[in-house]
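Page 37, continued from 36.
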């Protein structure tokens, strides 16, 4: 299949990139033998704009996308986070290629109102919409025209290539990295934990409390030294929603702590992720696993094996292709056991 993946490719970061689910999707598509082209809307807009002022290049980026479609003739267009591409352009793709399927993938949280509106907007023109929140939370997007599906955050063995569950010599006991304080009060809990834990363990909080954020290889190096991590969303309010941090920690064999309010115990195997109810419960469990390294390694190994086996980029990409084009599912996808092929809940 010929697939065009429209998403920000971080070209102008020149290697100092963030871990990207869109890049993992591209990797998975290629590994599944789909002929895949990428189109980076933000980068094209900047490259085509006068003086490199990105907002002045939006119209040109839309024209360049249509040129790409004419040249490549995709069977499937996946529009990820590409706000510079208008729905009129996606409609024009359907006019030019009536048999081309259009999917929208959205990896952002539903507690951000503008993102809810963004998904509704895309659902008006897409054949299928995939959101990284659990399917039962997605009823608000039904009836706009698109079929609606849940998608997970995947791992890719080329990116999540560590196995810290086998290591006993790691200097960072606990890690939390962040770069956004919008729609969240999570840093108050992180501060309370730092105060309570004191010098009893090495707790790194890159991006907060005076510690510089880490990107690219610096982030890789931080993960490579870490035993345990906090998987704190900006809000813990939506079923099966987590930032990509969950996959990054699990895929590298780093034990993680996450809220029990997200119900990931219904998806992930037992004794793989540590769930907590409140701050005191979390503090007690951090101390428990810090004091029992064999238990830390066993739980982290179980999570890593599950993510690498059942939530990897190849399965992720093939699921999106199959659901978008209504091909029968070729795998018992762990995250889609409550979803029919047409996107409806079982």
């Amino acid at each position: 299949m010929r697939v065009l993946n429209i998403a920000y490719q971080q070209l102008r970061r020149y290697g100092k990139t963030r871990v990207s689910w869109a890049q993992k999707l591209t990797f998975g598509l290629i590994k599944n033998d789909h002929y895949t082209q990428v189109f980076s809307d933000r980068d094209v807009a900047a490259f085509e704009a006068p003086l490199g002022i990105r907002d002045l290049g939006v119209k040109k980026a839309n024209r360049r996308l249509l040129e790409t479609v004419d040249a490549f003739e995709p069977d499937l267009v996946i529009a990820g986070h590409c706000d510079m591409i208008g729905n009129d352009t996606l409609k024009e793709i359907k006019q030019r290629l009536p048999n081309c399927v259009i999917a929208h993938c959205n990896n952002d949280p539903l507690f951000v109102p503008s993102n809810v509106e963004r998904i509704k907007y895309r659902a008006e023109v897409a054949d299928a919409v995939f959101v990284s929140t659990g399917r039962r939370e997605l009823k608000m997007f039904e009836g706009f025209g698109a079929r609606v599906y849940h998608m997970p955050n995947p791992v890719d063995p080329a990116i999540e290539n560590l196995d810290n569950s086998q290591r006993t010599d790691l200097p960072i006991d606990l890690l939390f990295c962040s770069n956004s304080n919008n729609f969240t009060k999570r840093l108050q809990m992180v501060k309370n934990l730092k105060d309570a834990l004191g010098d009893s363990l090495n707790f790194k909080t890159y991006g907060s409390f005076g510690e510089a954020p880490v990107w690219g290889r610096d982030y890789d190096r931080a993960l490579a030294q870490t035993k345990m991590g906090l998987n704190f969303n900006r809000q813990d309010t939506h079923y099966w929603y987590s930032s990509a941090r969950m996959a990054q920690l699990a895929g590298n064999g780093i034990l993680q702590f996450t809220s029990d309010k997200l119900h990931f115990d219904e998806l992930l195997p037992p004794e793989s992720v540590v769930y907590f109810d409140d701050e005191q419960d979390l503090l007690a469990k951090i101390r428990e696993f810090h004091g029992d390294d064999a238990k830390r390694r066993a739980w982290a190994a179980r999570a890593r094996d599950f993510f690498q086996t059942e939530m990897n980029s190849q399965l992720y990409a093939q699921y999106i292709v199959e659901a978008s084009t209504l091909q029968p599912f070729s795998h018992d996808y762990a995250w889609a056991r409550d979803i029919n092929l047409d996107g409806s809940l079982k």
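The first strand starts at residue 2 and ends at 6. Flag for discussion at group meeting. The mean pLDDT is 94.
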